[in-house]
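input
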Amino acid sequence: MRKIWTAAAILVLAGSACGGGAATRTVLVDYASDQFAGAFLSYFPKNVEVRQGDTVVFRQSWSGEAHSVTMGSLVDAYGRQIEKDGLFKLFEQKGYEGLPHETPKDIKPIEDKIPVMFAPPNYNKAAQNGAQPCYLATGDPPKNAGKACTKAEQVQPQFTGRQRFYSSGYIHYAGANGNTFRVKIAPDASPGRYFFFCNNHGPFMSGWLTVKAKGSSIPSETTVNRTALNEANTVLRPMTEAFNLAKDGRYPIPPDQVNDIKGAGLPTAVIGGKTVYKGWWGGFGAEHVNTAVGLEFIPKTATVKVGQKVSWLLVGPPHTVSFDVPKYFPIFTIAGDGSVDRNPKLDPPAGGSPKPGEQKNGVLNVDGGTWDGSHFFSSGTLGADKVAIYSLRFSKPGTYKYACLVHPAMVGTVTVTS
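output
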């Protein structure tokens, strides 16, 4: 998790009860495309209406990116101030680059009270005050990242709209409630509009829940699902186009990265007046899309020779390039006491000693050396302001599968010939 401020499917048709009874409305957390693996850092739809006594089901599509649903009057104050300052509109127009570099002074005092899911400085260790569930009628959540809310405060109540803090914490992909967070709206919930967001990916992965009085008219589940799909498609279309360009070797390099990528010795070409990268990708993005990242190795299968240096240009959130991955490699675990832990084998390099990387102008360049194909070997998580480059050689012929440990759908195969 980055600091909140600076951070970047199957559509389930859950029918409502007949006869005017309590209804269920579904909000998708992230999204799964049948075109490519990706992470969609949004809720679909962003706005949902329910009545007193209804239920909202937040259904997560697991991409490897950890999410939460975090609400409450403290969070409402946060969202309303961001809205008042016009920053949601600014983000839609210009993305993260258009936002202030520092949290505005009228927002920071509120933000400082809201725990994040992963603790600084490296954001690779779960912050228990933000990663574990917490439901507070009054008062603020613990400031100490190592201190979770009490067990009594982790028992989920019905949502009244009057709680100070109401957070799912990390939504686990496994277990009886895997990928699901259900919010029962109390029969006496205060009608109103409530802000919710992900305390891992920040306030621009967010939405609004409107609670109406019992008996009020609200959109049908079919309408809600159609809206969710339409919102997802506005992001999916440019991302699919970018994916196809990358597969065809026509993916344009952002102008501010051209010199750095050329300087690293990576293959480029000029097509249609734009400089494109002609090598291997790990992840991709699309111009003007700030809420989605592609999670694909491109090409997915490739053939190289023994001793040949290959390089991946890693784009988006931190990735790994990892070989001979154990069959069971959990990204996160939840211990018996409720503590959330990130796999300690995920982030550090493994199986060798890659040379320290050099980061220049936001581009990280790491040489992983040579792998003999006989043991678990991982780059460790690599991320940079712009892109990261990871290079490797193979000393023995064979067919080797590899993956990103952070994003389980991000996989590839290399065949090495003599």
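quick obs: The chain has two domains: 4-236, 248-417.
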